[in-house]
Amino acid sequence: MITLNALIAVCLTYVVFLFVVAFVAERSATRGRVGWLRAPVVYTLSLSIYCTAWTFYGAVGSAARSGFEYLTIYLGPSLVMVGWWWVLRKLVRIGRSQRITSVADLVSSRYGKSNLLAICVTILAVIGTTPYIALQLQSVTLSFEVFAQPGVPSPEEGARSYTALWVAFGLAIFTVIFGTRNLDANERHHGVVMAIAVEAVVKLAALMAVGIFVVWGLSGGVAATLARIDASELGQWQMDGGRWAGLTLLSAAAFLCLPRMFQVLVVESDDEGHLRTASWAFPLYLMLMSLFVVPIAVVGLDLLPAGSNPDLFVLTVPLATGQEGLAVLSFLGGFSSATSMVIVAAIALSTMVSNHIVMPIWLRLTGGGASVSGDVRNVVLLSRRLSIAGVVGLGYLYYSLSGGGTALAAIGLVSFAGVAQVLPAMLGGIFWRGATRTGALGGLITGFAVWLYALFLPSIGSGALPDAIMAQGLFGLNWLRPQALFGIAGLDPLLHALLWSMALNVTAFVTLSLASFPSPLERLQGAQFVNVFDHSGGPRSWAGGVAQTEDLMIMAQRILGATEAQALFDREARRQGTRGALPDPSPDFLETLEKELSGSVGAATAHAMVGQIVGGMSVSVEDLMAVADESAQLMEYSARLETQSDELSRTARQLREANQKLTRLSVQKDAFLSQISHELRTPMTSIRAFSEILRDSTGLTQTEQNKYASIIHDESIRLTRLLDDLLDLSVLENGQVSLNLRQGMLEEVIDRAAAAANDGGLRLKIRREARSEQVMLHTDLDRLSQVFINLIANARKYCDAASPELDIRVSDGAGPLVIDFIDNGSGVSAEARDMIFEKFARVSDHQAGGAGLGLAISRQIMTRLGGEITYLEGQRGAAFRVVLPRDFAMAAQ
Amino acid sequence: MRQPTPMTPAPDRPKSPVFLQRDSYRRRRLMDAARFLPVFGLLLWAVPLLWSTSDEQAVPSSGALTYIFGVWAALVLAAFVLSRHLRRGEDEPEAGG
């Protein structure tokens, strides 16, 4: 008889072997040699975690107890795999294109990244899986006990618990080491998958070996075995139709929804092509796993004493017939089933717990300050590890609390029914665009509540639900009895709960989906999920690292500019030690590159671009929205720049105009200075000349003396007038003038001005309208007259028409008084118009006349009088408009 | 003389042609078969629901086992054959033909 210690040694050796397998697989994966890791057969074998210890040992037990029911657990998944074209193909494609990390992530992504939904699914999964993990611990513990010396009393509860604790501890260590080695966006664990594949081979080989031994070794061939079966207690088909159909469908649903199955089916899937192989290979695996169950059960019932645990026939039949090697192999098969399930379930659950519960809480507590991806890396890893320890610990706790009794055995199907509540939201999400977050949440919570109340709580034994509720219903309402909801009694409890939970779940899901309206993100995600085959291309493959780096180089050059990009790549290549070549696309390099690029195009865009080239993953809606945000900011920024540059060019234009005016003024001033010196010099010269003549010449006649003296006098007057004008202007400009306000008629003022300026109308003909000039004014009439004189004199001097005429029009409207002076000459040229009111301005040099002060003085006067004088555009000749307030005193108020 | 260009816009091209080449047609039917296979399996495995459970007419277990595993093997075989032929043209559009 093999000793317990030898068994433990075998067990440890096997565990070490698994560690080595996982380690080698990880090493190969990090070195890029993933060819053999990605074989379809590895994928198919990894699916075998569906066959847990519950099915390894329990199938035979179930067959011994209730005949063919165990088959349903395998038939459902077989149908799902055979029907991969319907659901699995779509799930895997969605999982790849949306970078789905868990079943909770799938549901939450589909319904607009709702974290509330993710939390619900996670809680459901943890509640559904914890008893299942406890079940695995129990089966390992029981199988250890089988090898204890017969006759020796079965170990104490404490020792059992001790075994379970060690197993739980070892599993947690393995899972932490290989499940959180790398924090990849794709969440693939090559080491774990490889170890599971090996374990799958071990458990199939073990069960087949026992089966072959039983059929050919103990029963004497196939025909004899069939005859033996027919002769046994299980000789006839005794199967409840409802359970047959219900459990087949339930196992199919659970196959899709179990977190660990989703992990290996979708998350760890590298290639859609693997599904094609698995579509026939996995049903074959399941068929082989279940082929020998009935023979083993029948032989066990025959061979072993009544009352022995049928769950352990797989172990006890070889032991009873002295086949210790076979028994150890069988033990390893059961051990493999238990460990692989716990490992993958722990990974799947820890991903969900960490991503959807721990990280959001942590980010909220730290104020969401982790904007740099490097920040959270360690935190995520730590939270994953703690979650794994937590999940396994929870399983152990459940095991030790429940006492490892028979109550646990029933938990398998209960757990299936629990996780199957996700199915409506999941299938509805990938096939029906109208499914909404509200519907999914409603359906999930309804189904979960019914399951909890009608199945889970009653199943964990007395105490969870008081007897009063079990017998009389919640609040004493008869129709709320947990196992006879709505008064329908007599159903099998599992079927009853399954029927009601799924029915109410689907009803709530559909009704609320129809009644609610999805958010934009939800609708986008819905379209992406339902029409995933229209949106995503086939699986792409990336040729070696160099091609990627070249693509990155091309992209970087486009964004950063050729010199900078080359400098960056050179620097990175030197840092990596690959002198003179392109750098390898290591994570460090990609991070650096992403940071560089994000400086130019924004973080989200940079991430999407690098991801597109390196990861070959498609860009999610969230990425796109982030990109759109960034582009909007860039556009706003550039719009602002454009406005500023417009403003700058406007200012520059104004400055240029001002400069031109200044230049012209300066030119005019120069011209005036020469003019004024000329003006001053001409009279001075003649005054000097004639006064010298008067002084030096003797014998001048009286007439001559008078003539010369009057010339001197005239020239002096001219000088004085010039100086008077200058003085006048300077006085007006400085505002030192005092006005002499009087009442008077406009007509009189114009009369006086015309008489003074026009030399009796010889050269210029003035047209006036006497009637309109009957306006009483209260202003400085002398000054106003000075303005008019200036205007009329200008017309006389500068009007170049053959017979010059001047129109003086007075418009006496409601507003201020307007007097227009319009002549019939060629007018003032456009470029000179803004200069004529400046000092020393003259329309042209050759028409010399005054000093160019007249209009400047006029404008100063009009300003003082509260009016204005402007050049009137659009007339035939030169036209000036004088605007005058009716009453200066009133205007001045 | 220059012909006037027709002003009617070109009709939208359908996503998939109405009639297919023989090869594509075969492939489409293979996809239909892949879709139909699980339904077929479900129907066959629902047959035990019709079996009587009364003692006199009950189906012997050997017969039941042979039938269920026979269906199973047939499904595996059919899935194997289909997966072989579906290797090419996997990304054909969903719609019919």
Structural class of chain B: mainly alpha
Largest interface, per-chain counts? A-B, 43 and 42 residues
- Count, helices of chain A: 35
User: How does the major sheet of chain A shape up?
Assistant: 5 strands, mixed
- Strand segment count of chain B: 0
Distance between the termini of chain A: 127 Å
Number of DSSP strand runs of chain A: 9
Sum up the overall morphology of chain B in one term: elongated
List keywords for this structure.
heterodimer; A: 893 residues; mainly alpha; 5-stranded mixed β-sheet; two-stranded antiparallel ribbon; 35 helices; B: 97 residues; 0% strand; elongated; disordered N terminus; disordered C terminus
Describe the structure.
- The complex is a heterodimer of chains A (893) and B (97).
- By secondary structure, chain A is mostly helical.
- In chain A, 68% of the residues lie in helices and 4% in strands.
- Chain A contains 35 helices and nine strands.
- A five-stranded mixed sheet of chain A has the order 4-6-7-9-8, covered by helices on one side. In chain A, strands 1-2 form a two-stranded antiparallel ribbon.
- In chain A, α10 runs antiparallel to α17.
- Chain A starts with a helix and ends with a helix.
- With 97 residues, chain B is mainly alpha-helical.
- Chain B contains two helices and no strands.
- Chain B has helices at 22-46, 61-85.
- Chain B is elongated.
- Chain A binds chain B through residues 67-68, 71, 75, 78-86, 226-227, 229-230, 232, 234-239, 241, 244-245, 248, 272-273, 276-277, 279-280, 283-284, 287, 291, 294, 533-534, 537-538, and chain B through 31, 34-35, 37-39, 41-42, 45-46, 48-49, 51, 53, 55, 58-66, 68-69, 72-73, 75-80, 82-83, 86-87, 90-91, 93-94.
